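Why do we care about 3D structure at all? Because function follows from shape, and shape follows, mostly, from sequence. That is the central idea of this module. The next example makes it concrete: a single protein chain, its amino acid sequence, and then its structure expressed as tokens.
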Amino acid sequence: MIEDLELRAAPSTDPAVRTLATAQQAELAAVYGDDQPLVDLHPDITFTLLLLEGSPVGCVGLQPVEAGLGEIKRMYVEPSSRGWGLSRILLDAVEAEAQRRSITQLRLETGTQQREAIALYTNHGYTRTPPYPPFENEPASLCFAKELGQVEDQGVAFGVEAEAVEVRRGVAHPG
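And the structure:
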């Protein structure tokens, strides 16, 4: 297990969350243009920050929508930290947090050009759904949802993921 991997809860006002969310929006603007719908960070969103060696490299938000329904917001891993399985760790963390909060269904929106994100979500059991507001008239938006099962021992999943990350990091950053 990676000793320098940390998951930490953070509010939407946390400076690291703001920095990562701003980077995500800039990256999306570069792909889709400036006319994409900009959705502010709702104050009810709680975030999980992923830190490597003490530095924030990723985040994911959970926003309650209504009883039993939550929405994944601002799932992001900085470009230099991609390809190590960190997004899977974040997705597992947000699903576990949703289950702890009695959320039985998660939904999310991603873009048509975000192939890696689409693969991540579909490989984790998310299925396409009709678009929901404010994305119903956005041709570049894809919406997904997943019914959550019972709470599982997430420690095992994190341990397996962390070992995979450690191996990948060793290859990516030798010596």
